[in-house]
Amino acid sequence: MSGKTVVFDLDGVLLHGDSTVELLRRRLRHSPWLLPPVAVTGALFALSDRRSRWRSRWSRAVVAAALLGRRIDSVEAELRALAEDLHAQEGLAPTRTVEALRSHVAQGDRVLVSSAGLEPFVHAWVALLTGPGAVTAAGSRLAQHRSGVVLADHHYGGRKVERAAELGFAPPYDVVYSDSDSDLPLLERATTPVLVEPSDRTLDALPRAVRERAQIWR
């Protein structure tokens, strides 16, 4: 047993693509009348800086628009079904990082999957990859509102560090796997940051101190 403390991002690391974007696509196919509010809030989200405080505000607006009039139990069931559906599609679980995840579990490391994705999906996806209860998983939490389902806790940026500590994963971390500079609060607290297929934009946005000790997986 190595006893390392290891953190994985999910979208782009343990899943090819973005789970929340896929949920939005399916919601719009089912309810096309939601397109105008989702398109407007989604555009503002896309234009915001990835480390700006506005990022979380626009994320909340997009989710509220897409889940207008919904009940939380129905949304949670839909997210679990989405995980099952995507898991059944070949090639969506990246081989190298999933093998790394399973290897850390087998070595007895303490593993946290920390995602900005919606928490019911995160829990379901991780359980499909590792089995129930093998690792700790955390994502953005939902809540019921009179208008529908809303994003109650956007698990993004510095919030990931706070929530990790709440779950017993206080920094420093031995290894952090991520594909985005939005995870800088995690990456800068890692002995070994692992950047998974990072874009040039991501690499340019990271401080030199992080880049110099990082492993880059292409």
How does this model look, in words?
With 218 residues, the protein is an alpha/beta fold. It has one domain: Rossmann fold, CATH 3.40.50.1000. Helix content is 48%, strand content 21%. The chain is built from ten helices and seven strands. It has helices spanning 19-30, 35-47, 53-66, 72-87, 95-106, 119-130, 158-166, 184-187, 200-205, 208-213; strands at 5-8, 110-118, 136-145, 148-153, 173-178, 190-196, 215-217. The protein has a seven-stranded mixed sheet, sandwiched between helices. α2 runs antiparallel to α3 (53-66).
The CATH architecture classification is 3-Layer(aba) Sandwich
Given helix and strand content, the structural type is alpha/beta
How far from one another are the termini?
28 Å
Number of helices: 10
Total number of distinct structural domains: 1
* Shape field: globular
Mean pLDDT: 95
Instruction: State the total count of DSSP E strands.
Output: 7
What is the CATH class designation? Alpha Beta
Please describe the structure with a list of short key phrases separated by commas or semicolons.
seven-stranded mixed beta sheet, 218 residues, 21% strand, 10 helices, Rossmann fold, alpha/beta
